[in-house]
């Protein structure tokens, strides 16, 4: 059911009327439906006609060489693209289990439902406690007891509570890189999102911190939808249920193949998939 609901992009976007990200309500349950997503920066189109159904409560890995548009797809999903001057996204994105009409008009709700973790940990230059409290207050929570309970639960969920409970007022910037990344994950989780976008979340981390994040990804996917961009084929093998390969073809990023992780690794259909995945252990 297409309700023709245009997600208007920010005024800073490339500007024309056709620069919209429409949000359609689908009847089918259990997936993020991305239809014909195209992304441009100024006059440069970098992703074209990207369509993919991402199953709910599973890990979907987006793979492909640098520059093929993986991050651009991610920022189309939570509309961070609106914050980038000159970035124009067209196509439609719908979350079959959510009230897309509400999300269309309420970016704060959209970003609460669709959390994001970046390549480099980016805690706010506040205390550990305030990083999480800030997120909750931004979303209108005022009750002190509930705030405290949710902060403790989020820190426990990412395995940080035992490591930091005696220094919650210390600066988040004093934590190790791996701890900072888990704090950033807790900052997303404290808002109880149903989708978490992860853009190469382990590329700046040591192997032990990477393992912790991968274990969290597996656990979180029991009740949340994870979209994970990774360059690590080993990581994709360890955590992904589904995969999609993007490739820059004639100068534009396009979907080459999608499938279950097992099918993509064991019997890739496209020559590019075979070439890209042949180095997996
Ligand atoms: N803010 C931006 N302004 C202009 N071009 C950009 C911007 N962000 C990304 N690009 C370009 O878009 C293309 C896709 O980039 P990106 O989505 O980051 O790819 P990937 O995540 O697969 O490495 C690249 O050519 C990149 O240079
Ligand atoms: Mg990227």
UniProtKB/TrEMBL annotation:
SMART domains xref list: AAA
GO terms of molecular function: ATP binding
Keywords assigned: ATP-binding, Cell membrane, Membrane, Nucleotide-binding, Phosphate transport, Transport
Domain ABC transporter: 32-277
Pfam families the record matches: ABC_tran
Family matches, as InterPro entries: AAA+_ATPase, ABC_transporter-like_ATP-bd, ABC_transporter-like_CS, P-loop_NTPase, PstB-like
CDD domains associated with the record: ABC_PstB_phosphate_transporter (cd03260)
UniProt KW ATP-binding keyword: yes
PANTHER family cross-referenced by the UniProt entry: ABC TRANSPORTER I FAMILY MEMBER 17 (PTHR43423:SF1)
Protein name: Phosphate ABC transporter ATP-binding protein
Provenance organism: Pelomonas margarita
């Amino acid at each position: 059911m297409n309700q023709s609901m245009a997600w208007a992009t920010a005024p800073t976007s490339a500007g024309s009327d056709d620069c919209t990200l429409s949000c359609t309500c689908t009847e089918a349950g259990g997936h993020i439906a991305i239809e014909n997503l195209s992304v441009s920066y100024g006059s440069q189109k970098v992703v074209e006609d990207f369509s993919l159904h991402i199953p709910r409560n599973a890990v979907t890995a987006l793979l492909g060489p640098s520059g093929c548009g993986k991050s651009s797809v991610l920022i189309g999903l939570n509309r961070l693209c609106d914050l980038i001057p000159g970035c124009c996204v067209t196509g439609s994105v719908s979350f079959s289990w959510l009230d897309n009409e509400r999300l269309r008009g309420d970016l704060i709700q959209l970003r609460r439902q669709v959390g994001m973790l970046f390549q480099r940990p980016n805690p706010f230059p506040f205390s550990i406690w305030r990083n999480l409290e800030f997120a909750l207050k931004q979303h209108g929570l005022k009750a002190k007891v509930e705030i405290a309970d949710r902060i403790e639960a989020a820190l426990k969920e990412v395995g940080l509570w035992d490591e930091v409970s005696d220094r919650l007022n210390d600066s988040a910037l004093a934590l190790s890189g791996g701890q900072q990344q888990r704090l950033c994950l807790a900052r997303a989780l404290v808002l109880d999102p149903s989708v978490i976008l992860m853009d190469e979340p382990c590329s700046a981390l040591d192997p032990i911190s990477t393992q912790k994040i991968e274990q969290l990804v597996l656990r979180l996917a029991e009740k949340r939808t994870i979209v994970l961009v990774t360059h690590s084929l080993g990581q994709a093998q360890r955590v992904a249920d589904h995969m999609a390969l993007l490739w820059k073809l004639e100068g534009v990023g396009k979907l080459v193949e999608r499938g279950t992780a097992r099918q993509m690794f064991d019997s890739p259909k496209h020559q590019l998939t075979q070439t890209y995945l042949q180095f997996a252990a």
